[in-house]
Amino acid sequence: MQKYISVSPNDDVGAKTKNGPQHKKYRYVRKEGHCNVVFRHVPEEWMLFVTDIFTTLIEIRWRVMFLIFALSYILSWLFFGIIYWVIALAHGDIRDLGNQPCVYEVRSFTAAFLFSLETQTTIGYGFRGMSDNCMIAIIIVTIQDVISCFIDTFIIGIVVAKMASARKRAQTVGFSNRAVINLHNGYLCLSWRVGDFRRNHLVEGTACAQIVRATVHATGKVDVTYEDLVIQQSAIVLVTPTTIFHKIAPGSPLYKMSLVDLRKADFELVVSFTYTDDSTGMLHQSRTSYTPPEILWGHLFQEMIRVSRRFYRVDYILFNHTAKVLVPEVSAEEYELKKQLRPSPRHSPRHSPRASPRPSPRSPRKNPQEKQLKPPTVTVELVSDSRPEPTTSPSQAETKHHDTLTLPNDLTTNEV
Fold this sequence. Notes:
alpha+beta, five-stranded mixed sheet, 27% helix
């Protein structure tokens, strides 16, 4: 007889090992989806960031982005202000006030900086302006205007791309805090829940799952292995929260794992959901991970969808709620083996078309006279009336000439 148990993640079921408590390992993928990996001593790291400057600026933090945004304008104003001050100094506008200046009202470095700011931002207060006395000053103003357009386009594009980043949209698609193992259609299944917290629908959603194991050898070598899990329905239209199932069948990494083995296991279940946003058309991916203590054995997600007269109502309060159910604590392999060895119920002969009917010992016996008899055969010998009727034995009757009469089927023995 199988033993069923329903447990919680805090129950002590064979969690201790012979070697004592194990060293705590950090997650490979955090709950919010970020990978817990740090790169060190990357060759030509700064060159890689500068080569792909657009992606680098999108991935940096907002405070760094605002600092770069401000410095790009201030440094450009300062750079061209210095150039205008050098032009005025070389033309003699600062020393000789009666000279025809290259730039009106630019007699100092401060005035040159303000002229650069007004030119690039197109403020135009009306006091400072270009003259046709210096061709070099006209060329510098033209170059500054072109560079100003490039800076505006670059900064605005970075800000828009950063606001429409896939990471922000991925935060609106969430996973359940726990994964559960229960019986689904007669098989042990691993399941978790995913839901979209926004009202707009997603397009072409695909769910994936992997078992990640990190093995540390005595020499210090670390091997990270990945094992794919087969999802029952990987293509999902995430209109309402959906429970994703993985059937623990032969070939699954969890096929030979029981409840006790799960508590002792050292792996990480990394799940992801890749989808296309209906509003922006951009590709997004949401990720999370589950450790063995976060996989509840013998739990089932509660239903959170209710049907009303006009709508399907989704209650997100029940998104992470589970209920305990009876689940065998053995592995899926042992559970399937016990199901095969379980004797199947015998069918009654009355329901089997091939079985011949057998009389029941309690059924009443029928009268032997009611049984249909075979038609008897009567032998009649022809003799004369003057002689007495001889007694004929069966052997003599065969040697003599005789006629055979066959009685009808409806006559009984008594009538004969």
